[in-house]
Amino acid sequence: MKIVVLAGGHGGARYTRGLRAELGNPPATEITVIGNTADDLVLHGLNICPDLDTLMYTLGGGLAEDRGWGRSDETFHANEELAAYGVPGSWFGLGDRDLATHLVRTQMLTAGYSLTDVTEALCARWLPGVSLLPMSDDRVETHVVVNDDEGQRAIHFQEWWIRYQAKSRAERFIYVGAPEAQPGPEVVPALMNADCILLAPSNPVVSIGAILSVPAITSALKQTPAPIVGVSPLISGRAVRGMAEQCLSTIGVPRDAASVARHYGSRQSDGVLDGWLVDEQDRDACADLAEDGIATSALPLLMTDVNAAATIASESLRLADRVRL
Ligand code: GDP
Ligand code: CA
User: Fold this and answer.
1) Which atom of ligand 1 is nearest to the CA of 242?
2) pLDDT of 250
């Protein structure tokens, strides 16, 4: 059985860890994770891939679990030194251990390796138990058009998210480079040959939305014979963590699980979903989705620990079986 997961960072990594636990370790099933790379940035000359790293560290046992990002047992001396020199960019939490990952990645990219190859090389150390694929080897960056005291301008998503804590009102998101970007070489084959495709409970706009902004990925999702099941990142209209609510408001999608499903759309009407997992609290509000061609199942969706995430993953697979053509 071949399972493909589309994932951002935190929500995607926790969900995938549950899926891996559900399937056994080493898994009897092949798991491929297509990670969002539109959060990537170049800072201090380094290529940083926040979502790929969160996936790699979480699945490889190197994540700072309390913080939810970056390395465990981390210090931030280099970042403090950069700030002391007055170098801009110290708002980004660059850890000393984490720095090594970015140095290796940057050196390999500079030497001409693709991001897909570099990610595989980094994973040789972390052994995440899945094939981790960047959505694209091409540069794609989510930019945010903000309008605040400093006027209207487009800034990098990470600056909006981390530096401004998403407080500057976002007027628009732009996936710069996406229209021309090609999926990583193994991405479309993985989607077309999958037995089941899962959309992790990741941010629908800046994680899953960014992956879907690569045209050939969305085309493959519309064409693949595999059933596609998504998991709602919203419970009772609230994002469990992060700022999905602000992102949804910006693109004009109401902040509830049913509206996110309608935003993804049913594959019966040119969308990308066959099934949608919602929290128990949203069961009634999502009952109508069947009329739109999206089958639903409801259970507690809070990933309090690996077991809870494994239960959610297991139900995703059951729903995928139910909607399999
Ligand atoms: P990021 O790239 O690090 O922001 O992470 P993702 O995009 O992968 O995940 C962020 C999303 O995960 C947020 O919209 C959260 O609502 C969602 N999320 C986080 N924890 C949970 C959880 O326990 N259950 C569910 N259903 N969603 C969660
Ligand atoms: Ca992210």
Assistant:
1) 13
2) 95
